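Section 3.1: Structural characterization of target chains.
Under the original work plan, the team committed to producing a structural model for every single-chain target entering the pipeline before any wet-lab resources were allocated. The record below documents one such target. The sequence was received from the expression subgroup and is listed exactly as submitted; it comprises 270 residues.
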Amino acid sequence: MTFILSKQFGIVVLSGVGVLLLFFGGTYLWLGTYTRHGELIKVPDYSNKNLFEITSHLEEEGFKVKVSDSSNYDTNKKPGVILDQDPKPGTFVKEGRTLYFAITRKTPPEVMLPDIIDNSLRQAEATLHGYGLVRGEIIPKPDVAKNAVLEMQVKGKKVEPGAKVDKGTVVDLVVGQGLDISIVPLPNLYNLTFQEALFVLKASGLKPGITLFDSSVRDTLNSKVYRQNPQFRLQETVLSGESIDLFMTESEETLNSNYINPNTYEEDFQ
C-alpha cells in the first residue's frame, strides 16, 4: 500500500500512460497518412468525353477505371463516348476510388429487318425508325399498290424481312407509284366491323392505314369503326391507293358519341 501511494508508483503510472498515448497517437497519425484520411477528391463530369482518350488522365488523378456497360450503340457518337458514370459528378471520394463508366459500343448490334412489305410509306418509315434503322432512297415503281412498300434494298441489293443487319443501316424502299391516277369516292366506314371496313376499302381501291383499337376492344375483327381519317363527307373523293386510318371500338357509348349524320355532314363543312 505504501508503494502505491509513493512518488515512484506515480511516475511509473504516468510513464505508462504517456507510452500508451504516444502509441495510439502515432498509430492514428500513421493511419491518417496511410489512408490519406480527410483527403477527398471531387469527381468531375466526364459525360460525352471519350474514355479511351482520358483513361491515362484519370489514372494520373488517382482514379481506377472500369467499364460497367458498353452495350449502347449511337450512330451519332464515336465508340467509347461516356454516357454515364458512377460515382456521379460532384461526389467527393478518396484517392484510388474506382470510377465505373457506361460507354458507347464499338460495333453496332444486329437487328432483324421488320416486315413492312405492303405497308404505306408513312407506316414503313415509322417502323424502320422504331428498329433503329434509317429510311434511305425511295425508288418508285409502277404498281397498282400506290404508296405501298414493294421491296427493301440495302446497298442496291434486295433484302427480305427477318434478315439481320446492323443497327443504323440505311434501307432503301421500292414504292408503288400506281398504274394511273384515278379518283374514287371516299367511303363512309362508320359503324362497320373491322372485317367489313377492310372489304369496303379494298373494293374502293383504298388501303387501311394506321389502325388504333381503344381499350374496350376484345375482339379486333368484330370491333367497329367510330372514326376514320380522312373523315367521311358527302361527295368527298380521294386518290385510289390512298390509306385510310381507322379508329376502332366495341363501346356503344363511343360509337354514339362520334355519330355524324351523313346527310348533314356536307353542310357542316361549307
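Helices lie at 7-34, 51-60, 121-130, 194-203, 252-257, 262-268.
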